[in-house]
Write a structure and sequence with these properties.
This protein is mainly alpha-helical and 100 residues long. The protein has one domain. 44% of the residues lie in helices and 10% in strands. It has three helices and two strands. A two-stranded parallel ribbon has the order 1-2. This is Peptidase S9 prolyl oligopeptidase catalytic domain-containing protein.
């Protein structure tokens, strides 16, 4: 079984850096609750074996995946971060993404 969860959209537009960071921290906590609920749901329905839960993320999803495995490493059998955006400061001047 595959459970696909998508996270989209930015939160910082029109806000100060401090406001944007606070909102992102709050969103991470909400994201974690939602992921935990989704995993509990599929396990509770007998749709997935808890020992086979894996997580994969690309770009910002890679960042979210690293957050998840950092917060609950025992919840996942495997993890893969593809092109994670974990340090935007290092991307300035080197990325081909125009909004960085």
């Amino acid at each position: 079984m595959r459970l696909l969860l998508l996270q989209t959209g930015g939160v910082s537009k029109g806000r100060s850096v401090a406001q944007g960071q606070l909102i992102k921290i709050q969103l991470l906590a909400t994201f974690r609750v939602q992921i935990d609920a989704a995993i509990d749901h599929v396990i509770g329905k007998g749709l997935e074996n808890p020992s086979k839960i894996t997580v994969v993320g690309l770009s910002h999803g890679g960042f979210l995946m690293t957050y998840l495995i950092g917060q609950a490493p025992d919840n996942f059998a495997a993890a893969a971060a593809r092109n994670p955006v974990c340090n935007p400061g290092l991307m300035v001047g080197t990325t081909d993404i125009p909004n960085w």
